[in-house]
Amino acid sequence: MFAEDIYTLSTPYREDMSVKGYHFGKGEQSACIIGPMRGKGVQQMYICSQLVKTLKELESNGCICSGREVMVIPVVNSYSMNIGTNFFGVEGEDINSQFPGRTYGDTAEQIAAAVFNRIKDYSFGIQLTAFHMTGESVPHIRMVENGYQNSSLANLFGLPFVVVKKAKPIDTKTLNYNWQSMQTAAFSLYTDSNEKVSVKSAKQALAAILRFLTRMGIIRYESHSGYISHVLKEKDLTAVHTMCGGIFRRKAKVGQDIRYGDAMAEIIDPYRGNTKETILAPTDGIVFFAHSESLIAEGDLAYYLVHRLHE
Amino acid sequence: MVKTVFSIGLSTGENLVIKKNRLEGTGGHGKGKKVAIVTGIHGDELEGQYVCYEMVRRIKERPELLNGVVDVYPALNPVGITVANRMIPKLDMDMNRMFPGDENGTSFERVAAAIVQDLAGADLCIDVHASNRFVKEIPQVRLCEEFSEKLISYARHMNVDMIWTNATETVHEATLAHAMNSMGVPTLVVEMGLGMRVNRSYGRQVAEGIFNLLYELGIWKERPKHIQYPVLSTDGEVEFIRADCSGVFIPAIEHSHFVKKGDKIGEIITPVEGKVEREIVAKKDGLVFTLREYPMVSKGALLARILTDIKTKEGE
Fold first, then answer.
1. What's the rounded mean pLDDT across residues A222-242?
2. Residues B16/B51, Cβ–Cβ less than 8 Å
3. Domain B237-307 part of CATH 3.40.50.10860
């Protein structure tokens, strides 16, 4: 293993922020795994740190395949990580909305450009990321539909679901979209947590990445075969919105198999304590995403369901 | 008359309400045209507040001069404005990347969709922004190249200092302006001043420009005096000056100042060492139309923008 400083930023009153890449094996740029660009992505950083630890062991045991090289960037935005904010710098820029970046652009664009120039030639790109909405989702691989996506390859992670999302204008500045545009087979990996470490789902994510690297002939590693992924389009998920705002008391959990008419949650009046709304399942299915905060507004997304799918 | 455009419940004893003031003149219906003035998509941009005030005040003062409808929307992101948050609080998302919205989507996607629906059918929409709190801007209209040919005929009457085609992301896809222009509602984006501040002089200048445009459209009967015509520019004529080191930026010139090549614009200092880290000089002649106000800078921070090769002033 060797570490590389991909980008270094100096500021007057803090130590330099260095974006570090950890390399394993030698040869063709085979796979790059990149951690959070937002400062609250602690789970994603944890998974990357465990990956660095595991790959180091595998490398010392001669288990990185000959002629293959893997890079892991555990965290891009460590400055925000240290102050508990999501976005970068005083301007509050989302680095994952700056790709492919500009070498002579503003600071966040320069960071994005430096990272992107270093990782764009890898054959496979795996980004550990999280929903912009506060909530939990079943572990899955997500990819943007821009003509270059390959959902068959995404199956090889062995996670329960692969979601293909139609690109919106805002997606065109993300790493996943730009990676795919540069012919890197790019995947975004989601677990059920973001700000807090969830050891169980982190292990599942780590196993999925190692499984994928094994199946692509990059490492030698014995692991369980995982799931045969269910591939679905984001637009086919059934959205369950609230009819009113209040205190959100969740009953249905992520991954739960529910039936039409089941009570999934209650909205409690924050002043009087009565139930303002009982959210009923509009269809049979698996809970794919669940709102996780205690408060919720009218019209907010409470759940996504995978329509008519059972365990 | 103040009307509710859209209302949706928040979690605790409050609704998020989008309001507009519909001003109908007593000067006859004229050609029956409707113009919308919107502001406050970004909660830290307050320059539009004064423009809205001036528009409502002056129309109420002389309703006989108006022979059409002017709708004024002073706060499209009301919760953001209340706490000076550029984004939508809690969501941490830029509302001006959510248009045209989705009437069956999340709460703010519904808000965005309702705004678009309410603006549909207007003959013209003017979206008033301020700069952010980091750089100060002269009054300008920003146009997306895709629609610039049609929009420039409106923008030239706006009494602004410049028109910048293909400027920044404020006019690109997923913005309100792009959504409305795509729907056939000509929509201009005005930028001026500084975030979290109101510059009364700029506000008056833009309000005067809007009245001039209303006059040109035939729904305001009195032509404003002393209207200026803007410099036209594209990206190629704008020189960006960015910090190439970190430190504290101290400007050496005033904003909206003409400079010659080699003139000093400012310096980046390091207080702890008591030295000048960089001296920032102009590489071309031109007008400094953007100047940094927030002193702390890191590598890549925008310090100034210079409009070079100024050659076209219409109407003069």
1. 93
2. no
3. no
Which of A11, A108, A132 comes nearest B246 by C-beta? A11
pLDDT for B312 equals 46
CATH number of A2-228: 3.40.630.10
Question: Do the Cβ atoms of B301 and A107 come within 8 Å?
Answer: yes
Tens digit of each residue's pLDDT (9 = 90 or more) over A144-194: 887 878 889 999 999 999 999 988 877 888 999 999 999 999 999 999 889
Between CA A201 and CA B132 the distance in angstroms is 40
Q: Is A245 an interface residue toward B (CB < 8 Å)?
A: yes
Q: Which residues of chain B have pLDDT under 70?
A: 29-31, 167-171, 235-236, 311-316
pLDDT class of A120 with cuts at 50, 70, 90: very high
Nearest to B187 by CA among B203, B176, B199: B176
Q: Report chain B residues whose CB lies below 8 A from the CB of A244.
A: 9
> Would you call B299 and A10 a contact, using CB atoms and an 8 Å cutoff?
yes
- The mean predicted confidence, pLDDT, of chain A is 94
**Cα distance from B241 to chain A (closest Cα, Å)?**
10
Beta bridge partners of B257: B288
What is the CATH number assigned to the segment(s) B2-232? 3.40.630.10
So what's the pLDDT on residue B315? 41
> A104: helix, coil or strand?
coil
Whether chain B has a CB inside 8 Å of the CB on A309: the answer is: no
Domain A236-307 class, CATH top level? mainly beta
**b/e map of B26-54 (b: 16 or more CB within 10 Å)?**
ebeebeebbbbbbbbbbbbbbbbbbbbeb
Which residue among B12, B16, B247 places its CB closest to the CB of A12? B247
Q: How many CB pairs lie under 8 A apart between chains A and B?
A: 93
CA of B246, closest CA in chain A: separation in Å? 5
